[in-house]
Amino acid sequence: MWKTVLKRVLMMIPQMFLLSVIVFLLAKAMPGDPFSGLIAPGTDPAQIERLRELAGLNDPWWQQYLRWMGNALHGDFGVSFVLKQPVSRVMGDRIGNTLWLSLMTTIILYIVGIWMGMVAARNEGKWQDKLLLIYNSITYGIPAYIIYLFAIFIFGYTLRWFPTGGTVDVDASGFFGILLSKIHHMILPAVTMALLGTVTIFTYIRTGILDEQVQDYVRTARAKGVSENVIFRKHILRNALLPIAANLGFTITGLLSGAIFAETIFGYPGIGQLFTSSIVQRDYPMLTTLILFSGILALIGSLLSDIIMAWVDPRIRID
Q1: Is 87-312 a CATH 3.30.1330.30 domain?
Q2: What's the helix, strand, coil split of the chain in %, to 5?
Q3: 76-126: per-residue pLDDT in tens?
Q4: Could you tell me which residue ranges the ABC transmembrane type-1 domain spans (predicted)?
Q5: For residues 131 and 126, what is the distance between their CA atoms, to the nearest angstrom?
Q6: Are 221 and 270 in contact (CB under 8 A)?
């Protein structure tokens, strides 16, 4: 299996190259530049032109791409036009926040989603099933930012249970004090994102259980006198979890690439919030790096999902 994994990794190299070209061209095609709207209206146009020349924005696109890619291969993604800091440093400061938020969200998402699917499937047609189907239909149809704003208003401003921005309290001190403060800041965005994202896992689990419990091997086990709990736990649920395992890689890398709306609305300084500010401020070095980072994570997510699927089900082999 590991030879196949190595082959897949080597195949990702040309995919990453093509991705980098597309990302760079799309970023360059955006209207305006970092100096548009950020300089006083009375500034001499010649001075603005000199700034563009010094930044290399007047060079042919392929020269800009080769310069950017050559530096990127050495870990240098340029300097943020807005923050005046190396892009790698800014991302390094933010990626840890997104990583921990993504981890908490993923854990809550899978626990709640799997539980919902099991309850609905084992009570097919009953009020529990109907209630969970209605809930997931509503959360799937309502724009997420509306729920985010509602959660902030209720739990942040009205009840004051959770903070409405940042990652740690200014008065937090000591290792455990800072750790508890960070967890406290993550709870509201993590729980909200998880409760709004259960529809995929819920659907997979519910459909999988309903399909598996009518299979011939289940009838055979029942005819042999095997208890219903054993049949459900060791056979039905195990097979129903396979699609969820295959989706795990995409879920992790998708959250890691940045929950753009969630981090922006909750005021959580992660990769998603940084992505939004880079678009608004036309920060090309930061923007191209973030988009490339997200694309690479998508490729890694595909590979990771295949590996997880082959690990949990030996019958499956990666082609």
Answers
A1: no
A2: 75, 0, 25
A3: 777 787 777 888 888 888 888 888 888 889 889 989 999 998 899 888 888
A4: 95-305
A5: 9
A6: no
Q: What sign for the dihedral angle of Cα 79, 84, 86, 91?
A: negative
292 CB-near residues (< 8 Å, 6+ apart): 19, 20, 23, 72
**How far apart are the two ends of the chain, measured CA to CA in Å?**
10
DSSP string, 220-274: HHHHTT--HHHHIIIIIHHHHTHHHHHHHHHHHHHHHT--HHHHHHTT--SHHHH
Length reported for the chain: 319
> How far is it, in rounded angstroms, from Cα 180 to Cα 175?
9
Does an H or E element contain 81, and which?
none
Q: Where are the domains of the chain?
A: 87-312
Tokens encoding 82:
């807005």
- Confidence (pTM): 0.78
Residue 209: which H helix or E strand, with range?
A: helix 199-212
